[in-house]
Design goal:
By secondary structure, the chain is an alpha/beta fold. It has two domains: about 5-15 and about 85-210, Rossmann fold, CATH 3.40.50; about 20-80, DNA polymerase, domain 1. Helices cover about 40% and strands about 15% of the residues. The chain is built from nine helices and eight strands. The strands form two sheets. A six-stranded parallel sheet has the order 5-4-1-6-7-8, sandwiched between helices. It is globular and about 50 Å long.
C-alpha cells in the first residue's frame, strides 16, 4: 500500500483525551441538572459536541449554553488532561521520514487542537493543522477534511487516506472521495468503523504503518 498524504484525527487517534473530555461533559450535564459518571461519557470523544448533547434532550436553542458549560471545565484544565498514545510520535517520525505528508483534520476547535499539538511537540511532523471553528455547530467533519485537503494541495485523492477512530472520520473522508484507515485503539469499535465503510483497519501502530508507508 502506501500513501503520499495522511490526514489524522486527534482525539482517540493521536492522543487519549478521555479524562478531560468526560469530566468536561459531566460538568456541562450537571449544569442542566443531569448527573452522569464521567466513565460513561466516552461517547463525547470524537463527534461534535452538539451531536452528543442532543442525546440528553438538550434543545438546539440551548446548545450554545451547553457548549459554554463544557468549556468552563475544558478551557482552563480539561485540555491538559490528555496524553499522546504510546509510540505515536515514533510512528509520525517514521512516516515523515518516508515522505508521507501529515495533516491534522479534527472536529475539535482549532484553537484547542493547536494548543494540544504544541504541548506535546507534535506540530513539527505536520504540514498543516485543521480544526473546527469555535462554533461547534459548524464542525462537520466533511468540511474540515475538505479544508485540510485543499490546504495540503491534495489533487489525487487516491493518494490520500484519513486516519481516525470514529464513524465521523470515515463519513467525512468518504464525502471528499478519500478512503479511511480506522484505528482500533481509540473510542470507536470495529463494528462502528466497518459499518461506516472504513477501507482499512489497524489494531496497533505497527499495522497502521504497514498501511501508510510506501
Amino acid at each position: 500500500m502506501g500513501f503520499d498524504f495522511a490526514l489524522f484525527d486527534l482525539d482517540g487517534t493521536l492522543t487519549d483525551p478521555k479524562e478531560g473530555i468526560t469530566r468536561s461533559a459531566a460538568h456541562a450535564l450537571r449544569h442542566f441538572g443531569i448527573e452522569a459518571d464521567p466513565e460513561g461519557l466516552t461517547h463525547f470523544i470524537g463527534p461534535p459536541l452538539p451531536e452528543s448533547f442532543a442525546q440528553y434532550g438538550i434543545s438546539e436553542e440551548r446548545m450554545d449554553e451547553a457548549v459554554a458549560a463544557f468549556r468552563e471545565y475544558f478551557e482552563p484544565r480539561g485540555w491538559l488532561e490528555n496524553a499522546p498514545y504510546p509510540g505515536i510520535e515514533k510512528t509520525l517520525e517514521r512516516l515523515q521520514s518516508a515522505g508521507v505528508r501529515l495533516i491534522l483534520a479534527t472536529s475539535k476547535p482549532e484553537e484547542f487542537a493547536v494548543r494540544i499539538m504544541e504541548r506535546f511537540d507534535l506540530t513539527k511532523y505536520f504540514t498543516c493543522l485543521c480544526g473546527a471553528p469555535m462554533d461547534e455547530r459548524m464542525a462537520a467533519k466533511s468540511a474540515i477534511v475538505a479544508r485540510a485537503a485543499a490546504l495540503a494541495g491534495i489533487r489525487d485523492k487516491t493518494r490520500a487516506v484519513m486516519v481516525g477512530d470514529r464513524r465521523h472520520d470515515v463519513e467525512g473522508a468518504r464525502q471528499n472521495g478519500i478512503d479511511t484507515a480506522g484505528v482500533l485503539w481509540g473510542y470507536g469499535t470495529r463494528e462502528e468503523l466497518e459499518t461506516a465503510g472504513a477501507k482499512y483497519l489497524a489494531a496497533d501502530l505497527s499495522e497502521l504503518e504497514k498501511i501508510l508507508l510506501p
